[in-house]
Known about the structure:
This protein is mostly beta strands. The chain has one domain: Immunoglobulin-like, CATH 2.60.40. The chain is about 0% helix and about 60% strand. It contains no helices and twelve strands.
Amino acid sequence: MIRLKAAFFCDDIRHELGNKLSAVGIYNEAMLFPKGTGPVGVPKLGALFVVCGLKGIADIKAQQSVSFGDKTNALPEMTVHRTDVTPDEQNFIFQQVPAVFSSEGVFVARLQVTVEGEPTHTFECKLEIRRGPTATQPAPIAGSTN
């Protein structure tokens, strides 16, 4: 059964020696910017999807898209051909360079995965874009003494 094992947004995703990935600056549910008006952004924004349940599957069709507000940008469908079908997982990486947001809202990265003999699986990762209190001073946690 194909399922999503993990998905998150971060500032950068790097390929390392030894078949490793490094994720830098992982976001929780929101990206905070200082109060103000006008567009906000970061130099780079990555999204990582780890899909599992793929053991024994050689060809995976994938369609990636991102949306913010009423605008969606879809990339062409790609086919991932795996010569080693023993791993259960496959990583799918998005990179938005730069990532500029016209206002507050929700940024959505979407991944559609299709393998022969199964319906298309759609996975989403959402990141709220907010202003304030500031990017370096998060709101106090309820019940904290700080």
